[in-house]
Specification:
By secondary structure, the chain is α+β, with helices and mostly antiparallel strands. It is built from 20 helices and 39 strands. It folds into four domains: 162 residues, Galactose-binding lectin (Jelly Rolls), CATH 2.60.120; 187 residues, Jelly Rolls, CATH 2.60.120; 116 residues, Phosphorylase Kinase, domain 1; 201 residues, Transferase(Phosphotransferase) domain 1 (Transferase(Phosphotransferase), domain 1). Strand 2 and strand 3 form a beta hairpin. Helix 13 packs antiparallel against helix 15. The chain is globular, with a radius of gyration of 29 Å. 51% of the residues are buried. Bound molecules: 2-acetamido-2-deoxy-beta-D-glucopyranose (NAG) (9 copies). The site of one 2-acetamido-2-deoxy-beta-D-glucopyranose has 3 residues, from loops.
Length: 861
Amino acid sequence: MHKIIQILLSIISVSLLFDSLYASSSDPAPLILSCGSTGGGKDADGRKWDSDSKYFTSNNSTSEKATYQDPSLPSDVPYMSARIFTSEATYKLPVKSGNRYWVRLHFYPSTYGSLDPADAYFSVVAGSITLLKNFSTSVTAQALTQAYLVKEYSLAPLESDFVNITFAPSDKHSGAYAFVNGIELIPIPDLFDSALMVGFSDQPVDAKAANLQTMYRLNVGGQYIPPNNDSGALTRTWYDDTPYLYGAVAGVTNEADKKVEIQYNDLPDYVAPVDVYRTARSMGYDKNLNRNYNLTWQFQVDANFTYLVRMHFCDYFCTKVNQRVFNIYINNQVAQEAADVIGWASEQGVPVYKDYAIFVSDGKGDEQVTIMMNPSVTADPPPEYYDALLNGLEIFKISDAAENLAGPNPEPSEMLIKAEAEAAAKASEAKAFTSSTASNVKLISGAAGGAAAFGALAAICITVYVKKKRVPGTESHTTSWLPISGFSHTAGSKSHASAASHLSSEAQCLSRRFSLYEIKQATKNFNESYVIGVGGFGKVYKGVIDKTMKVAIKRSNPSSEQGVNEFQTEVEMLSKLRHKHLVSLIGYCEEDNEMCLVYDYMARGTMREHIYKGNNTPLSWKQRLEICIGAARGLHYLHTGARYTIIHRDVKTTNILLDENWVAKVSDFGLSKTGPNMDKGHVSTVVKGSFGYLDPEYFRRQQLTEKSDVYSFGVVLFEVLCARPALNPSLPKEQVSLADWALHCQRKGILEDIIDPQLKGKINPECLKKFAETAEKCLSEHGLERPSMGDVLWNLEFALQMQDNGDGSGHSSRRAGSNVSEEVAPRLDLNSLSIGSEHELDQDSDDMNAVFSQIVNPKGR
Ligand SMILES: *[C@@H]1O[C@H](CO)[C@@H](O)[C@H](O)[C@H]1NC(C)=O
Ligand SMILES: *[C@@H]1O[C@H](CO)[C@@H](O)[C@H](O)[C@H]1NC(C)=O
Ligand SMILES: *[C@@H]1O[C@H](CO)[C@@H](O)[C@H](O)[C@H]1NC(C)=O
Ligand SMILES: *[C@@H]1O[C@H](CO)[C@@H](O)[C@H](O)[C@H]1NC(C)=O
Ligand SMILES: *[C@@H]1O[C@H](CO)[C@@H](O)[C@H](O)[C@H]1NC(C)=O
Ligand SMILES: *[C@@H]1O[C@H](CO)[C@@H](O)[C@H](O)[C@H]1NC(C)=O
Ligand SMILES: *[C@@H]1O[C@H](CO)[C@@H](O)[C@H](O)[C@H]1NC(C)=O
Ligand SMILES: *[C@@H]1O[C@H](CO)[C@@H](O)[C@H](O)[C@H]1NC(C)=O
Ligand SMILES: *[C@@H]1O[C@H](CO)[C@@H](O)[C@H](O)[C@H]1NC(C)=O
């Protein structure tokens, strides 16, 4: 068999030789290999992966399937199958001589067969370049809190028709083995040229023939760009830069006006996609502030390597030279004095990039690349604006003299270790509590995270958190008691408050800061008659700001520590999120021990009070459907629209609010969870949320995924249909929990018996069927069986269409979330309005323990 393969390979080799001799103009084809799989398959992006079997030779290799599928994996292919090597083995891959390539290696550390994931220690050599050495996938994944790892390298043009990629288990670790889940070999244009060595401008570094590893690739001031949306089919991933910002002032993000067209002129468009050049971060509008701070990013890197720093610029605002002139520093050395993007590009909206090289020597502690920018004020005449600009940033590691690119395994930060110990302790507490299912509690280390942060220490947020020092001259003018959020494993626990630091500078930038005086003016000195709700956080007041703007003001109860954390989380979350179906945070106030959040006023209060609580005319079925669709859109955005998956954690009908036009808005992010690299991941965490809506799987396994929100939303859907609370302890035992009871009735086919009497006969049967099936699927026992919020949304829209068609109303094409107030105008009772109200729950809490076991142990499902 192996002989045959070898013969085949030599035939291929000969034919490729012919190809390269006689058809050298033909484009080399990319190789995308799913290792250890027999047939290959398609990934979530629709890319086709082939089996690796015809490209490698070894006597001691096996192909295995992973035994556990982490919910953060983007797709089965290539992660669920692996090629395992117990001795050295080589892939022999055809390349086009003289062409540069990406090599991407995909690793999913999991249990394969009887092998311990902790024993995977190996090296990888491509051609003559060492890519990885003593590489432990499990140590690395833990330190980066990622479920899977993607490493990207760029191999210099080879003078050969093959490249050998050799995997060798470490001989320093007994029982070591090597594995790989996926290999990509993608031909790319010559992306690199020469770069100026910072500090030695007369010594250009020639990167044309360099072998590099991608460390960071950021769309500065913009959003995550997936491989499919990259330019030139280079399938690069571009990340948001916010986790890497350093210091108290983070500048502002902005986007090119629609009228400005980005013109590449002489620059090939594969250099970076338009979205990179259309967005940027600049210093802000305050000239004096800008003079006195540096816009700063910081990156963790390995010592003893030279790094190529590529900065992408495109000024879509200025039109003339000497309008925006700035200095660039790398590791405190001048990289570029008096940078003037218009000067370089000669025109508005024309991209340019600049390459700099910096050697990072071995110092104490962690090695970093720090990039700083400040306005050049010494120019004569001085520039029109005191500002700096950056659109995109890439950092590559250049191989050293020994043709090595491998660095040491990253070490988990102290904070991560501590947070994990805490989570484990909490889990065992909870385990004792829910003893019946204790054996199922499985803590996966940290937040299993997501997409590729190229060896680049994506745990950077944690590191920044731990190390955050004051940069001289950037003393923030807001003395705040707020801890930074970034990465909170344990929001709501003590450790957080003790590690108090600052509200992230980004949040400060994005939201307005109110003085206590303004707040007191707005609420007539917190007059009780302005109270519109009471929550765990404190009281909610209505008020008027700027004479005309109606707002809702959440005032924290200073004695509640929970409140502090939730306040902080909420500012951090909401200040970055803007969406039609999310309640907008207008600003915050922190002064004299008062902390307040200022929101858009939601004139019609909570969804619940329009269904069964409160004295409102119950909503029509169609209105309810449209509100559900709006809320689903908001949640779908939280799960997928932002760079990081955000899990709401407390989805319920009192957290869905309605504005004067009946547009549903999701509110109350006090319990939300995210992680800097938690791309569709899950977090091990202390169980929070509201009884009656809690995902049983989350409860048992302490593992939070976005599917926990889907579960809670399923309860909301039944609540809307049946017009009763999620928990009603006064009912007979089997009916207490709406989730259990509705599922029971749905499965018995008697759901119609329990729907809201007001709706009887008014729901199109097809629509009801679709709606109930969707809700039922949301309540599936296992997260994996539940639909995504996107699917839920689609199904609800479909249900709405069925209702429209059945209605005979004729207006079937109207979109969800549109203005429905022309249809029905229920009586509005201002006194019953509340925002984020939780008092109903408090009333019921006496009976909570009685129903507790029912939720935890959902028998009869
Ligand atoms: C596999 O082992 C056989 C005999 O043990 C040997 O002849 C053959 O060359 C080996 N193949 C490889 C690829 O090492
Ligand atoms: C395969 O493994 C066995 C035992 O682990 C070893 O003796 C043998 O040399 C290996 N074969 C190759 C080709 O490395
Ligand atoms: C690749 O490895 C094979 C042996 O496995 C060796 O004969 C060949 O010379 C290597 N090719 C290159 C380009 O290193
Ligand atoms: C990717 O490109 C498609 C098509 O242009 C667009 O619809 C989509 O929003 C883009 N996705 C992101 C995350 O930019
Ligand atoms: C960096 O190089 C110095 C001098 O060669 C060496 O002493 C040190 O151990 C190296 N550091 C790392 C992290 O490899
Ligand atoms: C900005 O950084 C440069 C380089 O480290 C430093 O010389 C300068 O003083 C800094 N400016 C301010 C205002 O901190
Ligand atoms: C290999 O990596 C492990 C884990 O990071 C480390 O403890 C060990 O010292 C490394 N061994 C060598 C030889 O570098
Ligand atoms: C609160 O407002 C009401 C009505 O505007 C007023 O009668 C009352 O005196 C105010 N209470 C306080 C404590 O100012
Ligand atoms: C909704 O309808 C009302 C009354 O017809 C109108 O005043 C309001 O502007 C509409 N809002 C939107 C968002 O269309």
